[in-house]
Design goal:
Order of helices and strands: HHHHHHEHEHEEHEEEHHH
Strand order of the largest sheet: 2-4-3-1-5-6-7
Largest sheet: 7 strands, mixed
CATH architecture of the largest domain: 3-Layer(aba) Sandwich
Oligomer: single chain
Distance between the termini: 127 Å
Helix content: 40-55%
Number of strands: 7
CATH class of the largest domain: Alpha Beta
Mean pLDDT: 76
Length: about 300
C-alpha cells in the first residue's frame, strides 16, 4: 500500500539586497529620519511630566507582550479588547505634548517662509518692567506670536488699546482693579488685561516660583508666546519661552532677549532711574505712575507730602 502524500513547499522569503547607491541613499535617509524622530520625542519629553508617563506606558506594553508569548488566556483577551482604544488614550494623555510639537513644527515652517518683518517694537514693555522691578510690583505680560491666544483673551477684560508704558503702569498699579492676572499683547496693542492662564504642572520647577511664574511657564508650554514676569517679592525680572524660565534679567538683557526672539531690531532706550536728585524724594514719588494720587488739598496735604525722617 502506498500512501498518497503531498508536500507543500512554503515560499522562500528573499531579503532585499542593496545593489545601487540610490537604494543605499534611501536606506540611509530612512534610518536618519527615524533617528531624528526618536531624538525629538526624547527631547520633547525630557524634564516634563510625560517622561514618567512614557515609562509607565513601556511597562504596560511589556506586560501586554508577555501576555502574548506566555499564553495567558485571560490577560490576552483583555489586551485584545483594550488595544484598539490605546491610540485614543495616548492622544488624550499626551495632548499637551502633541500640541506643543505641532505648534513648534508650524512655527519653524512659517519661519522658513519668512518671519514677521514688522517695525513695531516693545520698548514700552522693557521700560515698564524696569519700573515694576524698582518698585517691586508684580506683573505678568504675555506677548502673542504665531499661535493665537483668543481663549485666554476672552477670560480677561478686553481693552484693544495701543501698547504704551503709561497704560502698563496704570494696569499693574497695586490698587487698580486689573492688576491681578496677565496682560496679553498682540503686536503693538494690548488685547486684554486680568487674563487667566494655565498653571504649569512641571514637577521639576523650583518651589520658590509662585503662581505668577507658574502661569507664565504654563502659557509658554502650550503656545509659542513669550511671557515677561516681575516678582512682587524681589522685583526680579524673568522671561519664559517654551516652558523655560530665565530669571534675574536686567532691563538691558530683557531688551536683547526680546529683540532676539521677536527677530527685530530694538534700539537701546534710556531707562529711568529710581535715585532721587538733590535729596528730593517727594518729586520721585510724584513722578512714579505706580504711586497713588494725592487725595488731600491745602496745608494738610502739603505737610503730608514732606519727606519723613
Amino acid at each position: 500500500m502506498f500512501l498518497n502524500t503531498t508536500f507543500h513547499q512554503e515560499p522562500l522569503r528573499v531579503t532585499p539586497v542593496i545593489t545601487t547607491w540610490q537604494q543605499a541613499a534611501w536606506v540611509a535617509l530612512d534610518i536618519f529620519l527615524v533617528a531624528v524622530l526618536i531624538y525629538q520625542v526624547l527631547v520633547m519629553i525630557r524634564g516634563t511630566r510625560a517622561a514618567p508617563m512614557l515609562a509607565g506606558l513601556a511597562i504596560v506594553a511589556l506586560t501586554f507582550y508577555l501576555a502574548r508569548i506566555g499564553e495567558l488566556t485571560t490577560l490576552n483577551w483583555v489586551v485584545s479588547r483594550v488595544l484598539p482604544y490605546v491610540v485614543f488614550a495616548l492622544i488624550v494623555v499626551f495632548q499637551s505634548e502633541i500640541r506643543h510639537v505641532l505648534a513648534d513644527l508650524g512655527r519653524r515652517l512659517s519661519f522658513l517662509r519668512g518671519g514677521d518683518t514688522g517695525s513695531d517694537s516693545y520698548d514700552d514693555i522693557v521700560l515698564a518692567a524696569n519700573l515694576f522691578s524698582q518698585h517691586q510690583t508684580g506683573a505678568l505680560i504675555v506677548i502673542e506670536r504665531d499661535i493665537g491666544l483668543r481663549t485666554h483673551i476672552e477670560s480677561g477684560v478686553p481693552l484693544d488699546a495701543r501698547l504704551s508704558y503709561d497704560l502698563l503702569a496704570t494696569i499693574f498699579r497695586p490698587s487698580a482693579p486689573l492688576h491681578d492676572g496677565a496682560v496679553i499683547v498682540q503686536k503693538d496693542r494690548i488685547a486684554a488685561a486680568a487674563c487667566f492662564l494655565p498653571l504649569s504642572m512641571n514637577p521639576l520647577l523650583s518651589t520658590q516660583l509662585g503662581t505668577r511664574h507658574r502661569a507664565a511657564i504654563g502659557i509658554t508650554e502650550e503656545t509659542d508666546a513669550i511671557a515677561v514676569v516681575v516678582s512682587e517679592e524681589t522685583g526680579a525680572i524673568s522671561l519664559t519661552i517654551g516652558g523655560q524660565i530665565e530669571r534675574e534679567l536686567s532691563p538691558e538683557q530683557l531688551r536683547q532677549r526680546l529683540s532676539s526672539e521677536l527677530r527685530r531690531y530694538m534700539a537701546p532706550v534710556t531707562l529711568p532711574t529710581s535715585i532721587a536728585q538733590n535729596g528730593d524724594e517727594s518729586d520721585e514719588l510724584l513722578d512714579s505712575p505706580l504711586q497713588e494720587p494725592a487725595s488731600q488739598s491745602g496745608p494738610e496735604a502739603a505737610s503730608d507730602s514732606e519727606p519723613r525722617a
